[in-house]
Amino acid sequence: MANDKVSREFGTLLFTDADMQERLPKPTYKRLRDVIRHGKPLEIDIANEVAHAMKEWALEHGATHFTHWFQPLTGITSEKHDSFMTPQGNGTILMTFSGKELVQGEPDASSFPSGGLRATFEARGYTVWDPVSPTFIKDEVLCIPTAFISYTGEALDKRTPLLRSQLALERHAKRVLALFGQTPERIVTNIGPEQEYFLIREKDFEKRPDLILCGRTLFGCEPSKGQELDDHYFGAIRPTVNDFMKELDDELWKLGIPAKTKHNEVAPCQHELAPVFEQGSLAIDNNLLTMEKLKLLAPHHGLACLEHERPFDYVNGSGKHDNWSLAADGDNLLEPGDNPGKNLRFLVFLACLVAGVDTHADLLRMSIASAGNDHRLGANEAPPAIVSIFLGDALSAIVNDLMSGADVHKAKRTKMDLGVPTLPKVLRDNTDRNRTSPFAFTGNKFEFRMCGSQQNLSDPNVVLNTIVAEQCDRFATDLADVSESKFTEQALKWVIDSFKDHERIFFEGNGYSSKWEKIAEKRGLPHFRTTPDALPALIAPENIAFFETYGVLSENEAHARYVAKAEQYAKVLNIEAKTMSYMTRHMYLPALFKYSGKVAESVARKQEIGITSQAELDVTRKLTEGIDGIYAAVGELEAKNGHAATLRSKPQTQCEFYRDEVIPAMERLRKIVDEMELICGHDFWPVPSYNEMLFYV
């Protein structure tokens, strides 16, 4: 049976806790659990025994190589494969794997983005095993999740600051719970990333250099049909897509990734996959694996997967909702319970999160800033670039009652009678959904909706974890000397004061409306419209001090990340500008020359026999004007992009020049080319159109 197959195959390529318990001596297993759960040092004798058990398990599952699997500042994963084979000198080999090979590797640190922390001649870097994330087998390679640091000990990756932020949050959340008389063994964040993506025919993808090189279409006129009929969202899944999704589920389940929900999204060819929540760093690892599998498996079905935030204009882009909650030994600290207004522990953690989001809205916005996400945010399909919090009617009423000093009423869930006896009555939730809110409470978690679809979620979760850690620290410090008899009163006062101090961050209305921008401005909420606006927040003195206080980033590491992000923004736009130039000169202009020549030839032949076609004359004139306009526009773009390259030593200036000069030049070129697409004959146009790509069935 199918369900037996799922349970039988789930996690077969994952070296699980059960595998460790089965294969390791009991004392070694216990010591390893102490390393994982309590942060105790990893001794080499333990590492050797674990390495041997891992190797034997991996060989049984067909693995021939191992790799340290890490996340450099590019945001994607990196790996170098080494075989288990060790020649013995007599023509034979042994398959070996030592504790040292498990625990530490040494890739070239100069070939990855470092934001200036490493020069080309300073090549040494280290990968270090993270035992919290289980190892797994991918394509006959044992993959060992690792951190990546420089020779001088600075973090060169996404994982290390994430782990530091989780430790900071756990440390201060435990202090809060201690005031409630609770002493949990572990406090972890739980994350559920909702991954959106597009699928198009692979043969269409291969004909579009912009999709191949940039992940998005740089040209393309508006399709005849978009998403206006609302007929794709939750619609019947196409057979080809369904086959792809089935294979994806199978592959993810083998890796122990709890893929749960799949459906069509709003835009044509857009889909979503959502997993069951997992511990923070593991959930991010699994999301990166999911993104990799999406791209690798799509060609098996004649498809190409697009993970860019805005692969097509005129229809919705793709995001990755970051569902975030906090749990103490499995007990969700953001669960309101039956009576949220009387649930003091819930209110304290809610107030901590509210205060953190308002205080550090600039860092949250910075954490999701990218060239791709700039196309999506505020585009009437995604949250605006202004950070606000949506609580829902019931919770908002409780917060307002607390702030006004009114009696807090218990929120009641009502049943809806649908008027059809055979249909059961529906229990209405206390919280509606507000899809326009960037940070929304959704029952027992918060959903951060500003994240881009191709983004590594480490950055936003580093910020989320650290801002909540700071507020937990503030609460625990403020109430440390309060007597037990006064604790409830003083804790509630602290909660109410926090809500009042940060009331401006609450917004229950339509985040897409222009009115909200004006309201937000009056409230003094920051509005960073673009990536160059948002990035400097990372190196603001108060934010550097904030990260240093909680041991998440040093000043050098913060500056390195700022430079790496700025360089990434500039490089993406440089590639896009050069791709536009290439496509214009090598594809669009030759096609228009050919087509206009055909039309002009037809005009001349007809005139020879005394026939004048006004339509053909008009088309010839428009084509000539368009060709001249394109030629001028591509020259302008190339000049501006060339100047941008001279600003490489000034990252902020270069980013702003791309935003203010290069992007408008790209838009002007696209506008003229797209106008010509509507005039040029279909058989002459060199690339598949939106109509062809978005509606391939």
Automatic annotation (TrEMBL):
GO biological process: glutamine biosynthetic process
The GS catalytic domain, residue ranges: 165-588
Domain GS beta-grasp: 64-153
PROSITE patterns: GS_BETA_GRASP, GS_CATALYTIC
Any one Gene Ontology molecular-function term assigned to this protein's record: glutamine synthetase activity
Pfam families attached to this UniProt entry: Gln-synt_C (PF00120), Gln-synt_C-ter (PF18318), GSIII_N (PF12437)
SUPFAM superfamilies: Glutamine synthetase/guanido kinase
Family to which the UniProt record says this protein belongs: Belongs to the glutamine synthetase family.
Name this polypeptide is given: Glutamine synthetase III
Organism whose genome encodes this protein: Lancefieldella rimae
